[in-house]
Design the sequence.
C-alpha cells in the first residue's frame, strides 16, 4: 500500500456504534464500547450490568479488566491473565525482532504491531487489553505521585520483572532502582529531564509506550523533536488535519489493519492525551514541550470530535480536559473557549452577581458583596460516599489526632469547654471540622458572609463535573485578567497570596506541602480505617479534570519562593531533595560556598555522568570543555549545554561562535525564550538582520508581553526601512515598557513615516514626561517635521536658511537597541485619542506650547514654533517667537564664538523680515535698535564674516525704511 493510502488509514475515524434505546440486547461491540466509556466515568456498576449481557469468553475477559480498572485495582489489571499473556507475546516479539537497541517506545510499538499482525482475528480483544493495561499503568503512577493511597514496594514487586522488556540490556536485572534510572532517561523530551524524586516513573514510561501505540498509531516516538512550532501558532481544531508526526520528513504509520483496529477504540486517544499531560507535568522545566503538545493536539482532536450519546457529561469532560491541556501547555487563550464549551455541554449556568452583606463581626452597615450563582442542569442528589464520610470524621495527623472513641471519652469528662472547642484546644479535632473562631478566637471575620438576602447564601448541590468546570473558570480568570483585588475576589482563596505578602505566600505553600501526602495517616492504622479511607478509584475519578499538583511540583514552587525571598539555605535543602542540581549549584554560589558546590557536582558525576552535571561543573570551573562533553554525552540533545556555551563565547567576545551555539540550542529546544532573545541580540550586533528578525519574532510569539523583544523587533524593521512593521512592533512594545525613552523616540520616527501624526505627537508628550530619565534635549528636528507635515503639507522642506536649517534634517539612524535588563518602573498608561486632520493643528499647538514652557532656552524650538505660527497666519506670535529665539542665542560670550555669531545673525535677519512685514514705525524702530546692537558686538571680532556683513546691509535697509516712514 502506498503512503497516501497509509495517511488515509491514519485519518480514519472510528465508527461510533450506539445502542438503540428500544433494544434490550447490545451487540458485543456495543458492550465493549459502553465499558470503555464506563471506565472513563469510573462507573463500575454499569460494567457489572454489561457483564450479565454477554457470554463471550473474550468479552468477559475484557470486561474483567474494565471492572478492575473502574474499581481502582490497577495492579490487578496488570496481573490479569490476558495482560500477562499479551506481555509474554510482547517479550517474544522483542527478542525475535532484535529490537533491544531501539528506544522503549519504538520497541514496544513494533513488537505490538508484530503481535497484532500474527493474530488478525484477535485484534479487537488485543486492542482493549493494550488500552486497559496502559490506563492501569498511568493510573498507578498518578495514584503514587498525586492522590494516594500509597503502596508498599512489596505490593508492587511482582510487577517489575515483566517490565524488563523496557531495558536496553537483557542481562540487567529489572530492579526498582534500575527501572527508575532507565525511565528518567527514557522520559526525556526536547532536551528536558523529568523530576527524579517521583515514585515509579517506570509506570508512566510503560503507560506512554502502550498508549502511544493505541492513541497515535505511529512509530515516531517522543524523542524525535517536532521541527515545527505548534505552540505559538496552534491550529484551531476546526481546521486541524490529523496527520502522523514524521522523522526526517517521513511518516512511519502502523500496519493499516492494526491502525483500523486501534481507531475503533472510543477512548484510546483520550487516555493517550491524559498520559501526555502527565508527562509534561513531570518535566522539571516550566517551559511547555512542543513535541508533547503536538501529540496532545493529535489526541484531543479525536476526543472532542466524537459524540457521547450515552452520557452527556462525557462531552463536557472531554471539552474540559482539552481546555486544561491548553492551559498546561500555555496555548494562547489557555483553554477559555473549551471551558465555555464544557459549561454549555454540561448545562451549567453561572452568573456573577452582587448582594448586600457583612464580612466582619463588628460591621454595622452592609456593603455590596460579590456572589457567584451556579446551578447544574440536573441537581446532584447523590450524597457523600461512605468512604468520604468516614474520611471526614478521621482526625488528621497534623493535628495530633485521636480516634472517634477517644473523642467520646473526652466528652464524658465534663470539661467546662464545649466538646468541639475542647478538641480544638487539645489539637485533636478533625481538620475539616475546625471553624475560623475555634482556630483563632481573635479573628474578626465571620465564618461566612452574612447576606441580607437569604437566597444569596444558599448553595446549590452541583454535579461533580460542574464543580470541576467552575475550578477551570478560576484558571481562566487568572489567565486573562490583571493581578488585582477584583481578580482575586472572583476566585476562591488562591493557594498562595503573593500579591498581599511574600512571607504569607511562603507559609501557605509550606503548609500545602506538609499536608500533601499520598499516605494514610497515623489514625488510620486499623483495618477498618484503612478500608474506610477514600479508595483509589474515588481519588482518581476526576483527577484528570482538575489541575491537581503532585508533591514535587509544590515543593519546586516552594523552593522558588524561598530563593526569591533570599532564604537560600531553605531553598538549597528543597532543591537538593528534588535533585534540581542547577538550582543547588546556584544556591551554593549565593551562599558563597563554591567549593562545596564543586565537590557535590563531582560526586554526582561519579554516580551518574549526566549532561546536566557536566554543565554544572562547567559553570563552577569556567571550563567550556565541560559544555562540549555535556553536548556529546547527550548525543546533541541537551540544549542547556549549547546555551551556556554560547554565553561563555559571548563573554570572550567571540560573537560568531556564540551565534552558532545559540542556533544549535534553539534547534533542539525551540520553546526556550531567552535563547531566542540572546540569538537576536547577537545577530543585531553583527547586523545579520534576517536572523535577528526571526529570533525576536519567535520571542514575541512565545512571550507576547516581552516589551524588550517587541522594541528590538521594531528597531530592526526601522533599520530595514520597513516602517509599517516597525510601527506595529513599537506599539506592542510600548504596551509593556512605557518608560523607555529610546522606544518612544523610535516610535515617533515610525509614526511620522507612516503619517500617524496623532500618535507621533502623543509620543512627544511622553518624551517630555520622561525628561527626568533621559536628560536629552527636545528633538526639534521631529517638531520641525510635524510642522512641515501638518501646517505645510505641500512643501517638501523648510527653507528658512536656504537649506542650512538643521531642523529640516532628520537622522534616520537614531535607533536605540534595548537591553534585556532595562529597568522599567512603570507608569499609568494613557491611550492616545483618535485625531482627525482637522484638529492636528490644535494638538500641535498644544505640544509646541508645552515644549516651550518646559524648555525656554532652545533657539531651534523657538524657530520651529515661529514657523508654525507663520503657517497658521499668526504674524504677531511668530514675531514674538523669533524674538525669543534671538534672546536664547544671546548667551554669555556669544560674540566671541564665530558659530554663535553666525547663528544669531541669521536669526536676527529672520526677525527683521517679520518686523518689516509689520511695517509700523514702532516696529521698524525697535528692529533697527536691536540689529544695531547685534551688529556692533559682532563687528568687534568678526567684521569680515559674510553673515555679519549681510546683517549690516539689512540694518541699512531698515534705516532707509524708517526714514521714509517719518
Sequence:
Amino acid at each position: 500500500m502506498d503512503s497516501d493510502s497509509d495517511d488515509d488509514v491514519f485519518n480514519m475515524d472510528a465508527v461510533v456504534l450506539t445502542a438503540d434505546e428500544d433494544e434490550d440486547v447490545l451487540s458485543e461491540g456495543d458492550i465493549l464500547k459502553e465499558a470503555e466509556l464506563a471506565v472513563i466515568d469510573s462507573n463500575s456498576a454499569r460494567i457489572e450490568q454489561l457483564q450479565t449481557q454477554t457470554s463471550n469468553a473474550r468479552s468477559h475477559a475484557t470486561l474483567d479488566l474494565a471492572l478492575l480498572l473502574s474499581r481502582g485495582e490497577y495492579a490487578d489489571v496488570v496481573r490479569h491473565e490476558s495482560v500477562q499473556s499479551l506481555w509474554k507475546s510482547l517479550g517474544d516479539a522483542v527478542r525475535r525482532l532484535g529490537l533491544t537497541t531501539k528506544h522503549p517506545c519504538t520497541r514496544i510499538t513494533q513488537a505490538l504491531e508484530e503481535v497484532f499482525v500474527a493474530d488478525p482475528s484477535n485484534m479487537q480483544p488485543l486492542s482493549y487489553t493494550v488500552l486497559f493495561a496502559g490506563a492501569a499503568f498511568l493510573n498507578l503512577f498518578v495514584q503514587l505521585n498525586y492522590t494516594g493511597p500509597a503502596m508498599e514496594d512489596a505490593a508492587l514487586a511482582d510487577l517489575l520483572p515483566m517490565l524488563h522488556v523496557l531495558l536496553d540490556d537483557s542481562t540487567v536485572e529489572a530492579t526498582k532502582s534500575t527501572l527508575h534510572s532507565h525511565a528518567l532517561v527514557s522520559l526525556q523530551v526536547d532536551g528536558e529531564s523529568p523530576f527524579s524524586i517521583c515514585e515509579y516513573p517506570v509506570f508512566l514510561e510503560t503507560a506512554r509506550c502502550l498508549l502511544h501505540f493505541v492513541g497515535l498509531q505511529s512509530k515516531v516516538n517522543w524523542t524525535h523533536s517536532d521541527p515545527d512550532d505548534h505552540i505559538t501558532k496552534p491550529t484551531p481544531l476546526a481546521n486541524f488535519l490529523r496527520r502522523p508526526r514524521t522523522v526526517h520528513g517521513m511518516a512511519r504509520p502502523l500496519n493499516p489493519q492494526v491502525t483500523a483496529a486501534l481507531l475503533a477504540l472510543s477512548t484510546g486517544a483520550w487516555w493517550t492525551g491524559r498520559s501526555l499531560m502527565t508527562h509534561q507535568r513531570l518535566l522539571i522545566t516550566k517551559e511547555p514541550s512542543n513535541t508533547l503538545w503536538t501529540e496532545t493536539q493529535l489526541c484531543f482532536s479525536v476526543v472532542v470530535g466524537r459524540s457521547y450519546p450515552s452520557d452527556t457529561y462525557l462531552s463536557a469532560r472531554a471539552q474540559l480536559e482539552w481546555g486544561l491541556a491548553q492551559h498546561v501547555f500555555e496555548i494562547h487563550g489557555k483553554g477559555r473557549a473549551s471551558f465555555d464549551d464544557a459549561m454549555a455541554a454540561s448545562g451549567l449556568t453561572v452568573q456573577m452577581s452582587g448582594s448586600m452583606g457583612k464580612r466582619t463581626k463588628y460591621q454595622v452597615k452592609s456593603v455590596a458583596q460579590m456572589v457567584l450563582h451556579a446551578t447544574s442542569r440536573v441537581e446532584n442528589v447523590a450524597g457523600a460516599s461512605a468512604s468520604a464520610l468516614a474520611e471526614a470524621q478521621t482526625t488528621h495527623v497534623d493535628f495530633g489526632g485521636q480516634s472517634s472513641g477517644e473523642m467520646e471519652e473526652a466528652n464524658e469528662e465534663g470539661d467546662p469547654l464545649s466538646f468541639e472547642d475542647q478538641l480544638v484546644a487539645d489539637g485533636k479535632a478533625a481538620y475539616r471540622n475546625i471553624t475560623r473562631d475555634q482556630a483563632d478566637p481573635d479573628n474578626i471575620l465571620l465564618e461566612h458572609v452574612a447576606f441580607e438576602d437569604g437566597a444569596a447564601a444558599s448553595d446549590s448541590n452541583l454535579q461533580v463535573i460542574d464543580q470541576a468546570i467552575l475550578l477551570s473558570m478560576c484558571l481562566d480568570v487568572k489567565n486573562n485578567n490583571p493581578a488585582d483585588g477584583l481578580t482575586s475576589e472572583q476566585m476562591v482563596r488562591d493557594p498562595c497570596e503573593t500579591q498581599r505578602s511574600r512571607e504569607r505566600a511562603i507559609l501557605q505553600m509550606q503548609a500545602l506541602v506538609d499536608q500533601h501526602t499520598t499516605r494514610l495517616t497515623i489514625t488510620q492504622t486499623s483495618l477498618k480505617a484503612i478500608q474506610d479511607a477514600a479508595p483509589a478509584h474515588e481519588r482518581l475519578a476526576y483527577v484528570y479534570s482538575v489541575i491537581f499538583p503532585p508533591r514535587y511540583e509544590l515543593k519546586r514552587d516552594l523552593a522558588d519562593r524561598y530563593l526569591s525571598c533570599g532564604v537560600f539555605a531553605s531553598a538549597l535543602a528543597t532543591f537538593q531533595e528534588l535533585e534540581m542540581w542547577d538550582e543547588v549549584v546556584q544556591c551554593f554560589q549565593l551562599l558563597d560556598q563554591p567549593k562545596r558546590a564543586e565537590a557535590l557536582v563531582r560526586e554526582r558525576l561519579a554516580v551518574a555522568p549526566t549532561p546536566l552535571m557536566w554543565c554544572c561543573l562547567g559553570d563552577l570551573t569556567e571550563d567550556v570543555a565541560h559544555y562540549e562533553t555535556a553536548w556529546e554525552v547527550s548525543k546533541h540533545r541537551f540544549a542547556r549545554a549549547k546555551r551556556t556555551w554560547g554565553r561563555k563565547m559571548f563573554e570572550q567576545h567571540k560573537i560568531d561562535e556564540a551565534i552558532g551555539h545559540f542556533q544549535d540550542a534553539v534547534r533542539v529546544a525551540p520553546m526556550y525564550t531567552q535563547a531566542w532573545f540572546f540569538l537576536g541580540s547577537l545577530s543585531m550586533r553583527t547586523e545579520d538582520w534576517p536572523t535577528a528578525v526571526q529570533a525576536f519574532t519567535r520571542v514575541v510569539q512565545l512571550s507576547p508581553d516581552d516589551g524588550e523583544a517587541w522594541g528590538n523587533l521594531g528597531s530592526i524593521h526601522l533599520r530595514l526601512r520597513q516602517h509599517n512593521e516597525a510601527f506595529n512592533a513599537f506599539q506592542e512594545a510600548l504596551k509593556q515598557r512605557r518608560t523607555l525613552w529610546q522606544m518612544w523616540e523610535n516610535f515617533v520616527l515610525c509614526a511620522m513615516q507612516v503619517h500617524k501624526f496623532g500618535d507621533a505627537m502623543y509620543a512627544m508628550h511622553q518624551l517630555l514626561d520622561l525628561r527626568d530619565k533621559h536628560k536629552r534635549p527636545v528633538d526639534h528636528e521631529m517638531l520641525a517635521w510635524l510642522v512641515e507635515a501638518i501646517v505645510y503639507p505641500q512643501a517638501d522642506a523648510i527653507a528658512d536658511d536656504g537649506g542650512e536649517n538643521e531642523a529640516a534634517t532628520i537622522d534616520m539612524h537614531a535607533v536605540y537597541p534595548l537591553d534585556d535588563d532595562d529597568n522599567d518602573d512603570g507608569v499609568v498608561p494613557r491611550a492616545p485619542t483618535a485625531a482627525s486632520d482637522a484638529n492636528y493643528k490644535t494638538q500641535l499647538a498644544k505640544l509646541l506650547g508645552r515644549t516651550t514652557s518646559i524648555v525656554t532656552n532652545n533657539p531651534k524650538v523657538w524657530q520651529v514654533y515661529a514657523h508654525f505660527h507663520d503657517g497658521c497666519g499668526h504674524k504677531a506670535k511668530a514675531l514674538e517667537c523669533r524674538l525669543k529665539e534671538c534672546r536664547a542665542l544671546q548667551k554669555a560670550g556669544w560674540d566671541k564664538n564665530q558659530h554663535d555669531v553666525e547663528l544669531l545673525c541669521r536669526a536676527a535677519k529672520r526677525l527683521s523680515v517679520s518686523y518689516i512685514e509689520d511695517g509700523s514705525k514702532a516696529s521698524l524702530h525697535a528692529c533697527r535698535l536691536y540689529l544695531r546692537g547685534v551688529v556692533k558686538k559682532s563687528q568687534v571680532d568678526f567684521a569680515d564674516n559674510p553673515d555679519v556683513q549681510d546683517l549690516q546691509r539689512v540694518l541699512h535697509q531698515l534705516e532707509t525704511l524708517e526714514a521714509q516712514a517719518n
About this structure: Residues 123-147 form the longest helix (25 residues).
